[in-house]
Design goal:
With 208 residues, this protein is of the alpha+beta class. The chain has two domains: 30 residues; 165 residues, endopeptidase fold (from Nostoc punctiforme) (Alpha-Beta Complex). The protein contains five helices and six strands. The protein has a six-stranded antiparallel beta sheet. Strand 3 and strand 4 form a beta hairpin. Helix 2 crosses helix 3. The termini are far apart. About 4% of the residues have low confidence.
């Protein structure tokens, strides 16, 4: 009887160990945020920055971590997305930093860094493009306005080595082209610039 109980205890312990391993594997496979990103909420959070973020300032700043931000009155193009996603619980500063710590060589080596820098990495468009792609969020780029849905994220090549990022609005022009919520130098605005520059990336958080 004693040996039987011991065998059962070992079997149950093994079951618990397997269950823990499965849970860990599942957690590692999940995206870096707890809840699905809602496209309309992303658009609304970005639009709330219009008239609030009035300037553009690319100066390097030391930030708190996690949740670090520059003054709300200013920022760069990436800050529009960073702030809008934080409203839904996704901190790109932390998400990008943790992924870069684990997979530094997977990210662009364009700034001469030998290790991640949590003050600036998430504020660089090429890094966000890499992170978005690594999360499985990349979509085909298209010349058709109908391919871009509210809440999508788009990146552009402005020329002269400059990249840009913005959020697709739920508002469209009379020709059906969606507006973009972005900060290209004059604060956060909602403008018709989707096809003004070369599109280099198209990303979507939600399956539709």
């Amino acid at each position: 009887m004693g040996q039987g109980c011991t065998w059962i205890e070992h079997y149950r312990a093994l079951q618990r160990a397997v269950l823990v391993c499965l849970c860990l594997c599942l957690c590692l496979a999940l995206p870096a945020w707890a809840q699905p990103i809602q496209p309309q909420q992303l658009v609304s959070a970005a639009r709330q920055q219009v008239g609030v973020t009035l300037g553009y300032d690319p100066v390097y700043r030391r930030l708190d971590y996690p949740g670090g931000d520059v003054p709300l009155a200013t920022g760069v193009c990436t800050d529009v997305l960073i702030r809008a996603l934080r409203a839904q619980g996704l901190d790109l500063q932390q998400a990008v930093h943790e992924d870069m710590r684990a997979h530094f060589s997977a990210y662009p080596q364009s700034w001469g860094l030998k290790r991640p820098d949590r003050n600036i990495d998430h504020r660089r468009v090429p890094n966000l493009m890499t992170w978005l792609r690594r999360q499985g969020l990349a979509r085909p780029s298209s010349a058709a306005a109908s391919a871009y849905l509210a809440g999508d994220v788009v990146t552009w090549d402005l020329g002269n080595g400059l990249s840009h990022i913005g959020i697709v609005s739920d508002r469209r022009t009379a020709q059906g082209v969606p507006l973009i919520l972005h900060n290209i130098g004059r604060g956060t605005r909602e403008e018709d610039i989707l096809f003004a520059f070369k599109v280099t990336g198209h990303y979507r958080f939600a399956s539709r």
